[in-house]
Amino acid sequence: MTGTARAHRAEPLPEPVRAQLIGAGSATVANMLLRRGLRNVIMAGVRPLAAGQQPLVGTAYTLRFIPAREDLDTLATYSRSDNLHRRAIEECPPGAVLVIDAFGSTAAASMGDMMAARLKHRGVSGVVTDGGYRDSAAVRETGLPCYQRDNAPKATPIALHPVALDEPVGCGGVAVYPGDVVLGDGDGVVVIPQDLAAEVAAEAAEAAAYEEFAALEIQRGRSLFGLFPATPESRQEYDTWVAAGRPGRE
Question: Which sequence ranges are marked TM in the entry (predicted)?
């Protein structure tokens, strides 16, 4: 088995940052990153495994696959304790998100239900892959938030060979570096550079709160013009609304 692993470099994500990101959502967070010139942050074709599953957020711990080769990838080699796929399940830190680069392949499984159950027990926040899972119904039953491209029922060694842990990868067309912050919800999965996470979270939370105000105004019949996107005048109205205790809020 080729490839080496390095110590996970990220600090645990502070709870206020986690809460702000989940409250704001992936689409709003992507807009905050766009303001900073980061355009390619939403994974393409990666969707929630289960409708209505809990959002996931955490720092990225990565696993990279390449295409399998018959002389290296067998059930015997797959069962070894030094297999990087199996090691990823045991070494992904609690609170982190396991990001699996399957180079877009659903020819074999990036993970199955036993691995999902083990990650759930270990306190991992969730799993994201641009491949797919086998035993998807059983994976859903674990309650672990998971994202994938499509179901992939075939055994992993048929098409996938693990080569690296905790190194930069590509997933859904987005660069993911160890320690980047990954946020997944019903809209998709966004990747936030680690050093921007706290400020983006705070700005996204504020933007989400303003959108709540704007939505109330639109429900009352107000035009988008002068309201959304925000103007200096509408921001003053928003501040007044907040100071008044956010009337009309459910």
Answer: none
